[in-house]
Write the structure tokens for this entry.
Amino acid sequence: MRAFQTDLPIVLDDVSILMRDVAILDSVTLTLGAGAPTILIGPNGSGKTTLLRVAMGLLGPSKGWVTWGGRDESAPLRRAIVFQRPAMLRRSAIGNILYALAAAGVPRAARKARADELLQLVGLRDLAGRAARRMSGGEQQRLALARALAKDPEILFLDEPAASLDPAATKALEDIIRDVAARGIKVVMSTHDLGEARRLGGEIVLMHRGRVIEIAGARAFFDNPCTEAARRFVAGELLV
Amino acid sequence: MPTDASAIDLVLRADPALIAIVKLSLFVSLSAVFMAALVGIPLGALIALTRFPGRDAAIVILNALMGLPPVVVGLVVYLLLSRAGPLGSFGILFTPAAMIVAQAILVTPIIAALARQTIEDLWSEYRDELAALNVGPLRRVLTLIRDARFSLVTALLAGFGRAAAEVGAVIIVGGNIDGFTRTMTTAIALETSKGDLPLAIGLGMVLIALVVVVNALAWAVRRAGERYAG
């Protein structure tokens, strides 16, 4: 069995992503280390999703470097992501998790018990046999979270997980995210909801037009933002 | 075969000649669809999941081949299998085997083109998730085929419908030999020309019933798929 290598810290060094000469990410330098959740905030189109994809390893930078635990290549064995609109495999809820467990190399004999555990964690135990694509938006997000946790990740990326959820579903999801973070999993999450960032954040990264504008601890960011853009964003003004 | 029997009588009392023709038709068309699926589904998956120069042209050609004229396929297979042809040594011209080959050629583009579209659509939906789950290439293909299975069954049924209804290819390579290579469609053509309308109409009724059953099956498979897999 291969020795476990940590993917932390994830370091983005002067990373740019260009699409048809437009910079989606513009010279981003950022270190994602172990510890409290990192929340990427910023208006739509600021590059949060792209940054998550780069850090996950799904998208290679046009310029700059990314390293995971000091290595410049790393299969996402212990990195997991929940997309804003997760695709549900055409299987039952438990079938989705069993698939992820199989893909993660979990022995067949251990999969059922682990799948039950994960469904319990996200409060979907009673819906184990339901077709995943017929579940509500909130249930699908929680199932996607359970599926992402199947590989026992060291780092969990969440792309606006509560973007389309009602307050009750959002609270249920945030409770699970807190629980996940408390288990020592590094959570890196994007949101454009300041309240959510305030509730979950350990470290805040403000992005605008593909650039990182400010990085600070949550309290410092909300109480004493350093940059004019951060001050305006915290005050609820529109960054355009 | 009593010529004065009505078409409905023939069907209701399961006339042996009629049953033999229906059995052979089903055997030939089902075998052809099976062979076409073995080639068509992997071919569709390959085109759906790979990028290569000329891919767009390959898709256009594959789609165009869905409308292959059966008589042209029959003619080509006839030339290949005839005694002087490159595959003449097999000696299968005017046998059910030749009919299966001809129908398989006719049906393969239908299954491949529909499978390509189905798998490509599913791939665009699954791509990010499967990459994030670190799923390897072989498991990706198997996952896509498995999860697209209800749509793929519809593709197979579409292929079967095409095979069961065609007459041009099987009449050329099968020869319409009584009791050996006579299928429903070739029998209808022959009996109509001979003026034995009851048998022609009886076979026509069975053929239409088969088409309805095939479509009902396709519908049931889709509904079951939606219920169990979403």
Remarks:
- Residues 96-132 of chain B form the longest helix (37 residues).
- Chain B has a mean pLDDT of 91.
- Chain B touches chain A through 18 residues (CB under 8 Å).
